[in-house]
Amino acid sequence: MSRPNEKLLATEHRFVARLLRLIESRGGDAQAVLAARNVDQPLAEFLDPGLIAVDEQKLRTIASYASVVAADMQSRKAGRALFRSGDWRLFFYCLTGSRSLREAIHRMEELLVAIDGRMGYASLNCSGSWARLTLRGARSGDEELDFIVSLHGELMYHSIFSWLISVPLGGIGALDYPESAAFYLDDDNWPFELRLNAPRSELIFAERMLDLPIVRTMDDCEAAPTLNFLFGLLDGNDPAEIARRARQLMALTLRQEGRLLSLDELANDLALGRMTLRRRLSAAGTTFHKLRDEVRRGIAIDLVTNSNLPIEEIAERLDFCDSDSLRSAFHNWTGMAPTHYRRSMKPVAKPS
């Protein structure tokens, strides 16, 4: 019989695997998510439940980071401005600077409006002995992606509020998605009662919880490893964080739209001036052109190795002017022509 901690590990692994598969299926780079959390296990091996090689804490860090990546993908697809590292810092200053959960939520409502809905909107109402926090965000039209991001959003707020008052919030997590959306879930182990087919997406919990004091400080927030990367508390000017987001945005645009972002477009998405972006990337030990080449190289090798697409189509998807340009670049990257590289990566047939 499995020990309780083994069951928890298996549950958390399924949760992470679902997120990574979703990211990969929507044109994201799930292997890069693992690499960003210092996991060098190949993605296919990591997804195998029989080959779990990380502990619960590492799984939580991967899950939290993957949630941010999925949310960025959904925001871009929905045409909503991406939230920024600085937004998270403001968010936590508002929360930890409050005296009660009620005050924290009211301040959060105001902040979400002030940052133009980059993290959606929230509205608190009380009815009888229940508090209802309605949550609204943009939808991309991709039901699975929208549903998973919405669910993770409710889980995020629920866990933050519980952490702030050091008391489990409990209650209900309601989502305005059909019952059929349960197909996208692997587990039913949630910190609240999950209800689908609700008239609106909201957290419903005991009204008395609103008057509990905030017992956490910003120092507590900075010291918590999961909170640090989950909520991107790196300063918005941190060069490494800017380089990470830049690489992610470039890869998403190239995979989804078949074009390379210009420097001006990237700077605009990151809410930076073009010269400021250049300086931040330089401080991170890279450049715009180097990042763009790395992104193109990674996707090119993936498509050549893991698809049967003609080289001409791969060239078009990677925004090369023609297939000869791709062949030249690919030779510079790998020392081989793409067709030769594809043949060399095919498994050798085992002798009978």
From TrEMBL:
GO terms for cellular component: cytosol. InterPro entries: Homeodomain-like_sf (IPR009057), HTH_AraC (IPR018060). It comes from the Bacteria. It holds the Pfam family HTH_18. Residues 244-344 form the HTH araC/xylS-type domain. Keywords: DNA-binding, Transcription, Transcription regulation. GO terms for molecular function: DNA-binding transcription factor activity; transcription cis-regulatory region binding. This is AraC family transcriptional regulator.
